[in-house]
Amino acid sequence: MTRDLIAGIERQLDALAAQSLTRRRRTADSPAAPRQTVDGRELLAFCSNDYLGLASHPRVVAALREGADLYGAGSGASHLVSGHSRAHALLEESLAAFEAPHLVDARALYFCTGYMANLAVLTALGSDPDATIFSEALNHASLIDGARLARAGVSVYPHGDVAALEAKLAASTATTKIVVTDSVFSMDGDLAPLPALLALCERHGAWLVVDDAHGFGVLGANGRGALEHFNLRSPNLVYVGTLGKAAGVGGAFIAAHASVIELMIQRARPYIYTTAAPPALAHALLASLDIIAGGEGARRRAHLNALVAQLGEQLHLRRWQRLPSHTAIQPIVIGGNEEALQVAAHLHAQGLWVPAIRPPTVAPGTSRLRVTLCAAHTEQEVAQLATALNALEHQLERNAA
Fold first, then answer.
1. Residue 18 lies in a domain
2. For position 186, what pLDDT does the model report?
3. CA–CA distance from 323 to each of 74, 301, 311, 369, 371 (Å)?
4. pLDDT, averaged across the chain
5. CB of 257 within 8 A of CB of 125?
6. 168 in Cβ contact with 153 (< 8 Å)
7. Are residues 286 and 254 in the same domain?
8. Domain membership of residue 371 as a residue range
9. CATH number, domain containing residue 286
10. How far apart are CA 200 and CA 222, in angstroms?
11. Does any domain span residue 171?
12. Each residue of 15-65: pLDDT tens digit?
């Protein structure tokens, strides 16, 4: 009987392999940085979400060490038992103050991961069966799962289609309406039309939940993210920021009106029933936030934007398609699964680490390279990537002829 169970699993794995959909982990032996030692070999990485290069920043590393000296290695319990440290409290106060220009009566709540934050916000706001969650078609898996776990009904609107969403909101009789969207879409690099979405939410009395995982720290003059980028402010906004990407450490936060945050503390199961993140991480994040908000953060964002422009200018692709992104996420659509894997393998042989992204993460027929740029990259390194991609496309075209 046990043999039959294992055989069933192996059939599923064989089916993934037959479609070139098997995923593989690589093991890094060095800190997150453009140049890493991976499986014993040095690679130039274009796959990290460490957009500002803070994961290995000396100030952040020193703050993490100091936090461990001050608070120990772990928190010991959930926030509502005994695990809420002074470091957590200071971080939440700092994050609320940082996002206060865009929120009314702002308060913030820190979570272990962005996935947990998204589950928390949608299950808490959408706990009423008479509520409806209006979810963007290309939302991250954590938002999709959060909507599925909520008691609310779910209505999906097409990617970036404000008119379709307006029609859905106008026809809805839900007592609570929640529109949820990524700000920067992680596989396309484009931005949601947040000003139009917020206008709709204010008109129809809906919450607008914005997952700014790939915008916080990067977008906006001061790195406050998508809300600053679009100069938005409203009590209808519920903002989710990730702290393991541009902030370089780990965890996430929800910032919103104080009453919304109090509801999360009282009702959000992913917050209530989990051990708090190590306080040392929160202590390190205070250093990250200081860098993001200061002159160094501004210089790093300017350099990152210059690298994005450089890659766009130096790529000369004919068959593959670089999607029109002005963010650090620079997708290059290859098409089929096998070719995407082949291209990634050719790059890896040249010492360039660029992942091939395949279904179900993206739609069938749109497998791609997900190039991510970092403020720690140099112009020479970006030029090396562009040259390799241009030559590789030409080489594969010639081989296929």
1. no
2. 94
3. 42, 21, 12, 11, 11
4. 96
5. no
6. no
7. yes
8. 27-54+295-400
9. 3.40.640.10
10. 27
11. yes
12. 999 988 888 889 899 999 999 999 999 999 999 999 999 999 999 999 999
What is the C-alpha to C-alpha distance for residues 244 and 50, in angstroms, rounded to an integer?
Answer: 8
Residue 401 pLDDT: 62
On whether both 315 and 363 belong to a single domain, the answer is yes
Residues 49 and 152 in one domain: no
CB 373 within 8 A of CB 308: yes
Tell me, yes or no, whether 4 lies in a domain: no
pLDDT in tens, 65-108: 999 999 999 999 999 999 999 999 999 999 999 999 999 999 99
250-267 pLDDT per residue, tens: 999 999 999 999 999 999
Tokens of 57: 């920043």
Could you tell me which residues are beta bridge partners of residue 28?
A: 38
Neighbours of 52 (CB within 10 A): 26
